[in-house]
């Protein structure tokens, strides 16, 4: 378990390329483009978040960019992640898709650009990675990584001796889906684990074991799950469209889950996938 010195929303993880990513970010999957996304991002920035996770596929990059500009916060103090859609895999198509994301965001550069999932083919994944490397060389992207990659996909990418290694693998992880195989491989390869759907999309928030632990620390079930991710050493990107929850989800730096309770939470694993699971794709 990686132990980091937490400093609230100013807690950073040093990526393998030495760039700093805020450990806790706001995810905006399934937040409607327009007012809903602008509000959520605005509330998050007001609450002190400095990391937003979007994707071309979420159709709200435009609204994320608007909220960032309206905040008046200097660009270099906000970390923006977006992602390459599966249907845009390939070299030319990935370059074009990344340029379009930049345009929609209205930004000069993307902090972290991810291959959203491995759902294409070995050739198209390799072409896509080459395109991402090119975007870094052109200064339009600072860091590149992958999402939903299983160990075999990571081995394929690392085995192609890329000029730039992936700095993160963004995967679904929470106590009901601990993904120890992928996590261990990433840790050994200095690829940071970014935990998506850290609240299991809300599916497991009523779990009695979780709620017993939450009561013990006088925290909500969601806060315990976010704190669990942080103590596991993961970057974590909970989503909410509600101001109070966005604030609540960042209020996770005033307690420490004891090792014994971390073990109890780990023991809830049942390989439960709340969304999709491309990690098992060929
Ligand atoms: N790379 C990928 O393939 C991938 C896949 C999925 C997700 N992600 C990323 O990860 C982010 C988070 O994952 P997710 O959106 O799937 O799910 P999540 O963060 O695990 O859960 C979001 C759900 O929990 C609810 N919620 C949030 N805070 C709460 C609180 N304090 N108390 C009670 N309920 C709360 C939200 O409701 P309200 O919004 O109504 O508050 C929403 O229904 C996404 O937004 C996206 O950025 C990436
Ligand atoms: C991936 O692309 C690079 C650069 O074009 C090439 O040298 C390499 O052979 C490719 N690897 C695979 C496994 O296709």
Blueprint of the fold:
Layout: E1 12-14, E2 20-22, E3 26-27, H1 35-47, E4 51-53, H2 61-71, E5 79-84, H3 91-105, E6 110-115, H4 122-137, E7 141-147, H5 151-159, E8 168-172, H6 180-188, E9 192-196, H7 208-216, H8 221-232, E10 235-236, H9 243-250, H10 259-266
Helix pairs in contact: 1-2, 1-9, 2-3, 3-4, 7-8
The structure holds NADP nicotinamide-adenine-dinucleotide phosphate (NAP) and 2-acetamido-2-deoxy-beta-D-glucopyranose (NAG).
What's the structural domain tally? 1
Q: Percent range for helical residues?
A: 25-40%
Per DSSP E runs of 2 or more residues, the count of β-strands stands at 10
SS summary, helix count: 10
Ligands: NADP nicotinamide-adenine-dinucleotide phosphate, 2-acetamido-2-deoxy-beta-D-glucopyranose
Description of the structure:
There is one protein chain. α1 crosses α2 and α1 packs parallel to α9. It contains 10 helices and 10 strands. The model has no long low-confidence stretch (mean pLDDT 97). By secondary structure, it is an alpha/beta fold. It has a single domain, classed as NADP-dependent oxidoreductase domain (TIM Barrel). It is globular and about 55 Å long. The strands form 2 sheets. An 8-stranded parallel sheet has the order 3-4-5-6-7-8-9-10. Strands 1-2 form a two-stranded antiparallel ribbon. Bound molecules: NADP nicotinamide-adenine-dinucleotide phosphate and 2-acetamido-2-deoxy-beta-D-glucopyranose. One of its GO terms (molecular function) is oxidoreductase activity. Belongs to the aldo/keto reductase family.
């Amino acid at each position: 378990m990686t132990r980091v010195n937490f400093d609230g929303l100013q807690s950073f993880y040093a990526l393998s390329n030495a760039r700093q990513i805020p450990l806790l970010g706001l995810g905006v999957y399934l937040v409607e483009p327009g007012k809903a996304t602008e509000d959520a991002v605005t509330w998050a920035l007001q609450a002190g978040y400095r990391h937003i996770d979007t994707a071309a596929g979420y159709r709200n990059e435009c609204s994320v960019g608007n909220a960032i500009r309206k905040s008046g916060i200097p660009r270099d103090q906000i970390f923006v992640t977006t992602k390459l859609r599966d249907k845009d895999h390939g070299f030319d198509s990935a370059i074009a898709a990344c340029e379009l994301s930049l345009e929609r965001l209205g930004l000069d550069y993307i902090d972290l650009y991810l291959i959203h999932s491995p759902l294409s083919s070995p050739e198209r994944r390799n072409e896509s990675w080459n395109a991402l490397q090119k975007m870094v060389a052109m200064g339009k992207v600072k860091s590149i990584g992958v999402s939903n990659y299983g160990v075999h996909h990571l081995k394929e990418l690392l085995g192609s001796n890329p000029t730039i290694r992936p700095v993160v693998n963004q995967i679904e992880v929470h106590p009901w889906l601990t993904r120890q195989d992928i996590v261990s491989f990433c840790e050994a390869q200095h690829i940071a684990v970014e935990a998506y759907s850290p609240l299991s999309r809300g599916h497991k928030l009523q779990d009695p074991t979780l709620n017993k632990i939450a009561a013990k620390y006088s925290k909500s079930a969601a806060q315990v799950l976010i704190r669990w991710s942080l103590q596991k050493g993961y970057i974590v990107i909970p989503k909410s469209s509600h101001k109070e929850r966005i604030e609540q989800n960042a209020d996770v730096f005033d307690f420490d889950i004891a090792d014994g309770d971390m073990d109890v939470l780990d023991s809830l694993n049942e390989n439960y996938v709340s969304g999709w699971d491309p990690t098992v794709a060929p």
